[in-house]
Design a protein that fits this description.
The complex is a heterodimer of chains A (235) and B (550). Chain A has 235 residues and is mostly helical. Chain A has one domain: Cytochrome c oxidase, subunit III, four-helix bundle (Four Helix Bundle (Hemerythrin (Met), subunit A)), CATH 1.20.120. Chain A is built from seven helices and no strands. In chain A, helix 2 packs antiparallel against helix 6, helix 2 packs parallel to helix 7 and helix 4 runs antiparallel to helix 7. Chain A is elongated, with a radius of gyration of 24 Å. Chain B is mainly alpha-helical and 550 residues long. Chain B has a single domain, classed as Up-down Bundle (Cytochrome C Oxidase, Chain A). In chain B, 67% of the residues lie in helices and 1% in strands. Classes of the chains: A mainly alpha (235), B mainly alpha (550). At the A-B interface, helix 2 and helix 6 of A face helix 6 and helix 7 of B.
Chain lengths: 235, 550
Amino acid sequence: MLSANLVKPGVLPGALPHEAPATQEPLASQFADLYQQREVATLGMWVFLATEILFFGGPLTAYAIYGGRFSDDFVAASERLSVPLGALNTVVLLGSSLTVALAVRAARLGQFRSVSLLVLATIVLGVVFLGIKALEYSHDYAEGLIPGIRFTAEWRPGVEARHAELFFFFYFFLTLLHAVHMLVGLAAWAVLLLRTLRGRFSVRWNAPIEVAGLYWHFVDVVWVFLFPLLYLLRH
Amino acid sequence: MTTATVEPRPQMREPRPRGRIDYLNVDFGARSWLLTTDHKRIAILYLVSITLMFIVGGLFAVLIRLELATPPGDLVSADTYNRLFTMHGVVMLFFFLIPVIPSVLGNFLVPLMIGAKDLAFPRLNLASWYVYMTGALVALWAMLAGGVDTGWTFYTPFSTRSSHSYVIGTAVGVLILGFSSILTALNFVVTIHRMRAPGLTWFRLPLFIWSTYATSLIILLGTPVITVTLLLLAAERLLGIGIFDPRLGGDPILFQHLFWFYSHPAVYIMVLPAMGVVSELVTTFSRKTIFGYHFVAFASIAIAVLGFLVWGHHMFVSGQSVYASLIFSFLSYLVAVPSAIKVFNWTATLHKGSVAFQTPLLYAFGFIALFTIGGLTGLVLAATAVDVHVHDTYFVVAHFHYIMVGGTVMAYMGGLHYWWPKMTGRMYPEGWAKLGALIIFVGFNLTFFPQFVLGYQGMPRRYHEYAPEFQVLNVMSSAGATILGAGYALPMFYFLWSLRSGKEAGPNPWGATGLEWATSSPPPPHNFETTPTVTLPPYIYSRKEADVVG
C-alpha cells in the first residue's frame, strides 16, 4: 500500500523525488534540468576555446618574433602564397559561419528542416575550404616550398633561404593546425546532421548545435587572423 | 593553545548498515571500474596509477642518491646518470606532482564539496584518465627503450640537435598528458560554476574548491603552450628547421620563454591545490573557522595570475635582457605576498583553536614549515645577483624539493589521511600514521637540507661525480633519502591494511563541516540521498560563530 502511494505518475519507481520525471528529454543524470545541462555545455565550450587561444598563441608569438627579426625574408616568402586563393577561402569560411549562425537560429525556432539544410551547407563549405587548401599545398610542393622535406625553391639575391624556410614552417604549422580543427568540426557537424535527421533535437534541447556553432565560429576567427598574418605581409 | 583529541562524535559512530549501497559495492569487476563515469571511482583509478608513477619516479631517485653517496662516478656512467635525473624529473613532475592532488583528491571531492551528483562531464572525466594512461605508457615506453637525457626542461638546441636519446617519445608522452590535465581542469571549472548546490554561493565554497578553481585556470591557460612548444621541438628535431637552433637561424631563448611560460605556472599547479588541502586541515583540527577567508580565497587567484608573470626568473643567466630580469625579479617577490598571506592566515587560525594533533594536521604543519623554507629560499633565488652565484647548484635543487616534496607531497599525504575514511569508509591506524608522518618529516629534512649547504658551497646539479669535500653532506642526503623512502612505504602498507581491518569510520569521523562529511562513508553512487541546501559559510564550528554569521 505504502509503496503504491510513493510512486507518482510520471516518475519511474526507484527514481529519487528530486529527479526530473523520466521523459524523452536527453537529460543526463548529474543535472537538475535541461537548462543547467545547456549552461554546462556552452560554458564547457567557452572554456575550451580559451585554451585554444593559448594553443594558437604559442606559435603565433614565435611567428611574430621571427617575422620582426627577419621581416624582409618573411615578406619575400609570403609573396609565394596565392592571395586570391587565400581570399577565396576566407570568403568560403565566412560563408560557412553564416550558415552556422542561421542553423543555430533555426534550431531555436524549431525549424529542423532548415537546420539540416544549413548544416549540410556548412559541411559543403568546409570541404570546399579544405579542398582549396589542399590545392595550395600541392602548388607549394611543386614549387619546393615544403620545409625540411622539399625546400628547393629559388630565392632572389638577398633573401636568406633558411629564414624563408622558417616562414614556411610556420605557414604549414599554423594552417595544418587550423585544418585539423576544421576536420574535427566537420566530423562534429556530420554527427549533428545525423542526429537532426533522426529528430533528436527540439526547441527545448538543441544545445549541441549551439556548442558546435561556437567552435566553428572560433575556427573561423582563427583563419581571419591567419589570412592577413601569412598572406598579406607585403601589403 | 589548548589541545584536545578529536573523538568521533558519538552520534556519528553508528556502524555502516549492512547492505547499504555505496560507490564501491554498487558494482564489481574490472569492467565496472574501467568503464565507470563515477568521479569517485575515477579518483581511485587515478590514485592507483599515480601511486605507481610515484614509485617509478622514486626508483630513479634511489639510483641517483646511491650514485651520489660517493664522490667518483662509480655506480653509473655520466650518460646513464643524465638519463636517471631526467626521468626522475619527468615522471615526478608531469606524471605525479601536476596531476596528483587535482586528479585524486579533486576528482573525489569537488562534486562532494559542492553538493553535486557528479562532475559536469563524467565521460570526459573518464576519458582524461585514459589520456593520462596513454601519456604515461608512451613515456614509460620511451624510458624502457633507452630513456632521455636532456633534463626535464628539454632545453634546445641540445634536445633537438645533440641528444641521442628518446626525446620525441618522452615529449609525446608529456604532450598527451597535457590533454588529460586540460580535460580535468575544464571539468572542474564548469562544475564549480554551474553545479553548486542551492545556497552554495562563491563565498560559502570550501577553500579547497577555490584553490582547485585557481589551479584549473592555470592548467587551462598554461598547458596548451607547453603542448605546442613540444610540437615545435619535435618538428625541429625531425625536420631540421631552425625554430630554436641558432645555427639554423632560430632562437634558443625563445624555447626557454615558451617552456617556462607553462612550467613556472606549473609549480603553482602543484602547490595551489596543496594549499587548499592545508586550509581544510587547519580549520578542521583547530575547530575554528579559517582566519581571513576572503584573503585566503583571493590569494589563490592572485597566485594564479601573478604565477603567469614570473617565468623569466628561470632565465637570469640565459642572456635574457637585464631589464626583463629586473622586472621578473620584482614580480617574483610580489608572488610571495599572497603565499605569505596564506601562511599567516593558517597560523592565525591555529591561534586559540582547540588544536587536535591528528596525523592530517601533522602533515599540514610539515607543509607550513617546509613550504615556508622553500618559499623564502625562492626569494633568495629571485634576487638577480644571488641567483648568479647559486644558479644550477644544489641550492636550487633543495629549494624546489622543499616546495614540491615538502609542500605538495606533504599536503597530499595529509589530505589522503584526512579523506581516507570518506573514500574507503575505514580509519587508518592513527599510531602508525603519526609515526609515518614523523619519519617522512625527519627523512625529508635530512635529505634536502644538506643540499642547500652543498649548493651554496658551489656543488653544481646534474653531475654524477663531485669533489671529495662534498661527501659528508651528500652521504647525509643519501641517508635521509633512505629514511624518506621508508616513510613513504609505511602508509602504503597501513592504508592497504585498513581497507580490510580499519575501524568503521562513519560519515564524519573528524566532526568536520563541509558537504563531503554530510553524506555517508563511502558515499553512495550519486553522492547525496537528497541534494543538500547550504545556508552557512564553511567552517562554522561553534554556535557563537553560527550566530554571528547568521
